[in-house]
């Protein structure tokens, strides 16, 4: 029982240490991406791949508001045939960057998730994104790794236990999706986003 209690105590302590100013920067970047009708690409491996898929789902579904243009969100983790094709023919480190080269449009956003911050395929995606002017965000744990250093916005979870890092990443993604949905709804209510209505243009 003590170990179960300590797990949640450590989770609570980690949440209290979250850099809220940086979290707000990520929220602002998502809102700006929505305003310019950009696509938000999300990627990660293992548990972070599950978080990436979940985040893309919530960005696309949770943010739906009547009469508002929908959020463009895509997880680069979800096309298994394509991922295995690139892995088999060229290398696992290229599975995300090769997809981005086909799908990326100027102004799009890349959210990369890596507990260690050192996943080569995630690093390549962010490095490539930086070279083409994408907005890049890195969600990390442990010491942040290379991802924290190269992402334009690095959001670091101060924890070295992977399950808890992944838990916090999931919580962050839920909070960001809910926040974006609230921003869309509030903006429609005050009539400041008429150009974001279905069929509108920026």
From TrEMBL:
Organism: Chloroflexus aggregans (strain MD-66 / DSM 9485)
Keyword Repressor annotated: no
Keyword field: Isomerase
PROSITE patterns: SIS
GO MF annotation list: carbohydrate derivative binding; isomerase activity
Keyword DNA repair: no
Protein name (database record): Sugar isomerase (SIS)
UniProt domain SIS: residue ranges: 30-186
GO biological process: carbohydrate derivative metabolic process
Stored CDD domains: SIS_GmhA
